[in-house]
Amino acid sequence: MPSAGSAATAVVVLAGFAGGAAVLGTSASAAPDAGPSSVTSGHLAHHDDSASPLVTVAARTATVKIVDNRFVPSNLSVRKGTKVKWVWAGRGTHNARAASGPTRFDSGLRSSGSYSRTLSKKGTYTVVCDPHLPHMKMKIKVR
Ligand SMILES: [Cu+2]
Fold it and tell me: What secondary structure does DSSP assign to 7-63, as a single string?
């Protein structure tokens, strides 16, 4: 029997961003409690927290794309213990820094590659990109 859980990965795929829809794909096959993700469409004219679609991830890894100049998705809900992986997908230089939340972290400024952080405490993070404040930020709820 394959052991549960070593490779459960959810990749957030951006589809039709102009329409405000995000599609969540998951390769997890052995998670009976991994219900359908809830994705709420919103208006994205100004991507502040209240207007961002909430992407709920029930797998062990959640991927956030860093594009020029925003986090995609910018409103994320994950379970405690989820590894959040930021992937630099734009051309600019950005960082991902926990400005508030249960713990602090900072990826440092970069323009490619990725940065991962396992979030093991419940709470709500505000993650910002320092060069592009006040607009470039995201929220992560760890439940
Ligand atoms: Cu930035």
Answer: S--EEEEE--GGGT-EEEEE---S-TT--PPPB-----SS--GGGSPPEEE-SSEEE
The pTM of the full predicted model, rounded to 2 decimals, is: 0.64
* 8 Å CB contact between 22 and 14: yes
What is the rounded average pLDDT of the residues 35-59? 57
Cα 37 to middle of ligand 1, angstroms: 27
> Ligand 1 center to residue 101 CA distance, Å?
19
Question: Distance from the CA of 70 to the center of ligand 1, in angstroms?
Answer: 7
* Distance in angstroms (rounded) separating the CA atoms of residues 111 and 116: 15
**Nearest-angstrom CA–CA distance, 61 and 122:** 16
Protein fold of 10-142: Immunoglobulin-like (2.60.40)
Short-list 99, 126, 128, 94, CA closest to 112: 94
